[in-house]
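Subject: Interface between my chains keeps coming out wrong

I've been trying for a while to get a sensible model of this assembly. When I model each chain on its own everything looks fine, but I need the whole thing in one frame so I can look at the contacts. Pasting all components below, labels as-is. Any help appreciated, I'm running out of ideas.
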Amino acid sequence: NAGVTQTPKFQVLKTGQSMTLQCAQDMNHNSMYWYRQDPGMGLRLIYYSASEGTTDKGEVPNGYNVSRLNKREFSLRLESAAPSQTSVYFCASSGSWTANYGYTFGSGTRLTVV
Amino acid sequence: QKEVEQNSGPLSVPEGAIASLNCTYSDRVSQSFFWYRQYSGKSPELIMSIYSNGDKEDGRFTAQLNKASQYVSLLIRDSQPSDSATYLCAVNPPMGNAGNNRKLIWGLGTSLAVNP
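Reply #2:
Try treating it as a single job with all components included. I did that and got this:
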């Protein structure tokens, strides 16, 4: 049972390049989330999807777009990468529509924008 | 005031001691509470959840919740060097406007070092 799978694990981009971070879960969870984690800033929510077909902005959505492709997959796209987007990105999922049972996290993507 | 507050540490305890980690939250009617452990360079891992006042024990871990005082704590008994990590507290706010209960509110974490 893989849980939450994120790809890639590491990526280096040049300023202005675009890329898509992929996330898939095999737990039949309804809700999925994208976070970034920076030293001293904690986990900050970028976007989330409470159910298939819906997406909502989190605390720091600027510069990002998301797609909930189906119940399993939730991708995060950086259209024009900036050095400020250098971070560790985590995808998470929750079996409860209300996050009442906590999240399961993927292993993360370490992104560097130069 | 931050919604979920934790002492950043580092908290240093000797091997075999009890480590006590604390978290306070601002919304009195929050519903559910979680402790995550995050090793350096790894993703957060859920170790305890608690929903009712009182204590909940799971092996060497005990979560304590006091809704009247708005705090939740995590006790680690017989601490081991392998417990050295950052511990994140997360709170699920009550149902309200804009689906707030769909998103956990996170503390910044407490760094724990267990010394052999």
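Reply #3:
Confirming on my end. The CA atoms of residues 30 and 93 of chain B lie 4 Å apart.
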